[in-house]
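Example complex used in Figure S2.
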Amino acid sequence: MEKEKPESHRVSVSGDVEVSAYLEIAKGRVGEQPLAEPEEKLGAEREAVVIIDFGSQYSWLIARRVRECRVYCEVMHHDAPWERVASLRPKGFILSGGPSSVYEPGAPQAPAYVYESRLPVLGICYGMQVMAHQLGGKVAKGVKREYGLAVLHQNSVSSPLFEGLPPEMPVWMSHCDRIEEMPPGFVSLAYTENSPVAAMGNDQGLIGLQFHPEVVHTPQGKAILQNFLYKICGCSGNWTPGSFVAESIERVKEQVGTGRVICALSGGVDSAVTATLIHRAVGDQLTCIFVNTGLLRREEVERTINTFQRNMKMNLVYVDASERFLERLKGVIDPEEKRHIIGEEFVRVFEEEAAKIGQVDFLAQGTLYPDVIESAFSGNRAVATIKTHHNVGGLPSKMKLTLVEPLRYLFKDEVREVGLALGLSEEMVYRQPFPGPGLAIRIIGEVTKERLEILRAADWIVMNEIKKAKLYRQLWQSFAVLTPVRSVGVMGDFRTYGYMVAIRAVTSEDAMTADWARLPYEVLARISNRIVNEVPEVNRVVYDISSKPPSTIEWE
Ligand code: XMP
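Predicted assembly (556 residues):
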């Protein structure tokens, strides 16, 4: 079910204008890589579960569901060493699904420590089969592939796994192999039409599920996972944004000591939350650098300065480099060249400003868990993300900076929750993603001061109307694009010859695929009407009704 991620020439970012994007674009300037910190020590009271990944497309989802149950978890490769796992002091294991068949040579196995630890284990699909295989049961190819919805019938054996749940429930299946013989000591907890052993367990807390509790098509799936976590592993669900904040502050303090930290602020969620967290921990030892590329949206600069300097009283170095960027973009039409120039110039400005600060020891980055997970494993996905993950390579090679990445184990929605817990405004926390190269890739053709002003005015209206219609949060992105097309119009008694602006509004989960948003006609009408009335250079507005793929979200 995993969608193929299309190859892209674009810079991959986790969601918003992160400085990482710029740094990565500046490919020519690969400096010394700061070493990532070793795996962090964990607070005594944090309850954790380890998900052993066998390459399933759903491993992520399992992690998200577990986190939704307020239990901390990490996804680890099936050959992760015990030391890494032990540092989390897990209260249980979850074995993910995977594409292999346990009876084939070379099929991945669960590490011995999973069973030797005597902790509860939940095997899901391949995870169940591997458990059966390793513990002396028998797995064989099913007569037919079972894919899609099935009805799960509980057996009369009572198990805390199904506590509070109905005797029959719909579940999502996706497997070819099945359990022919359970390992000694196991009993069947439930069956479906095609799987006599759709769930099995023993009295040591080892459980196997043939179906996928992590997908939405298994409506009671989260309750099943929660039962495993709470009733079998003994977790209490105390991992909350508040506890994360408190714990992270302690860790940052410990890591940074009396050192100095710099952080590039972009106005995006990830860097905002990172900076706020670090500021809470080490106060004035943090200096944020905010580069105005001149390619930002209206009021963006003022808002960022207000939030971080005036309200939060952070050390903020604000650099207005807009003229420099404009100068370098003069006459440039090719989108990739625009990106490259912007990335390179950004690094230069950042370097110059960082050098003025003097001795700096740490670089704070808003790396998120998806970047970490993807760069750690998962085949070809790794390639794209290693780049994002190592993008600090563009930083000054003379500066030996150690990374501080307080969000590296969080998903985007958790970052938002943490942002709110830190007192950041909803407006900041629920901001739509904005590309690193900014408005430059929404002006088709040459970027000039005049065109930037036109686009800013049109974009402002789009944002305004989308917010007024209460659609802002439902949309992945909504913005205006300034095309170089000019067309004839008529206003009053006058013929006009103006620019054409395109409106782009999309829904998406992860920006890899997107659908054009079915905006209400009235909203489109208001946007169009206001743009042609309030932006004199524009006399025509069109709505982009293409999805991704084959189109991209941005026009360049
Ligand atoms: P596309 O246009 O490729 O965009 O469908 C997917 C997501 O990535 C953002 N995007 C960028 N972000 N630097 C960035 O930081 C870039 O060069 C860039 N190009 C696209 C885009 O806004 C969307 O969220």
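The pocket of xanthosine-5'-monophosphate is lined by residues 8, 10-11, 13, 17, 21, 339, 433, 435-437, 477, 511, 548, 552-554 (CB under 6 Å). The chain has 17 helices and 18 strands.
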